[in-house]
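Researcher: Please predict.
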Amino acid sequence: MFSLRSIFDSRPVQPVASKASILMKGSTEQVFRYLGDNFFENYPKWSPEVKELKQIGDQPMGTGVTARQVHVDGGHRSESRFIITLYEPNRSLAFAGISEPFHCMYEIQDEGREGLVKLIFTFELLEMKIFMRPFESLIRIAAQHGAERTVRNIKNLVEIDADTVN
């Protein structure tokens, strides 16, 4: 049955979710140091569409820290604020949009083989603006490609960083 609610409801039937993983050289400590401890320095490196990133406040990095970012993606500029929702050293980092409905999570797993770590990245877009609804399938594809690019970028950067330290 046709419903106007379905046209004007900004929530997708299911969130736009993408997930990607990759194996990389290093330890859980090295990967978390790059992702978590040095988040404000490194996030724009692995996510090059982030043109500005600023921590709001001066508390030490951890759960509850808030930030402001400016994204330029496909020529479209957007600004959002987010909060660190999970900060488990050497295990996971997550943040969620305050001003935009998104959630990102980075999980780090020791593979049990000397010097190999698995990084799992999950991105969720929890709501979609009305003008985006006709493009939902394309947005899902782009989100998956973005997740795969994110883990590749992090792998390359972490491994380069480890090589320069050693």
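Model: DSSP finds four helices and seven strands in the chain.
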